[in-house]
Amino acid sequence: MADGTKQYSVFRKTFHVPKEWMRKPEIQDLVQHKYAVAQSEESFRLINTCLTKLGYNADNRSMVHDYLHYMIMDLLDKNGEIYLTENDIKQSENIHKLLLKGLTPDFIIKKKEPRKKTIIIDIYVGDKTASEIKGKYRNFDFFAEFFVVTQHDFQTTLANILPADDIDYLYKNFQIFLVEYHYWRACMKFSRILFNDEESVPIQSFPEITVDQMAMKEQYRSNLEAYAVHVNNQADI
Questions:
Q1: Distance CA 125, CA 131 (A)
Q2: Does position 1 have pLDDT exceeding 50, yes or no?
Q3: Of 11, 2, 5, which Cα lies nearest the Cα of 196?
Q4: Alpha-carbon distance 100 to 114, whole Å?
């Protein structure tokens, strides 16, 4: 390009990389998009190798969990919060076994005005409901408040802990991270690099709905309306 800007034939964006990940060369290779300037087969091998070494090659959402965990950790440090991480908890027999009965939340955060209690945070990116996760921690409400942080509601949940500007910063960077994450996952699924403006999946042409289908839909709607009126009519009950 005449203006010296880079042109990549693969999809890539830049996002804030947490300190813990900055220490890992494989993460650096991914977020610096080194695969983008390599040949197709070499590019895929690079993504595959990096994710495998990091333990993120399985489709288990652990990379999404860890991004939230490490970013929240950096923001807690930025705001001078005193806390223990999951690793700290595991290293203390008294805290892990006696106090938490073997549970390992992501963070235990010391109470700080205007918060009246210690805060326990568990980051969850699985398929269970938040209430199922909360149930495990109900016995600890005598000394702590418990919050489940998910990728869908962390803006609301973290409002009790982090300033609004930091939550907004986390939200924006997390959205960009997800774009990159899902791109890497898609490359793994297809076992190759997915290029821009290239048909990765043969595109089908779906036919228009037929006159008969439309007539059946209208008849179904009419029948359902009649049934609704009948159900609502209590005169003969």
A1: 14
A2: no
A3: 11
A4: 24
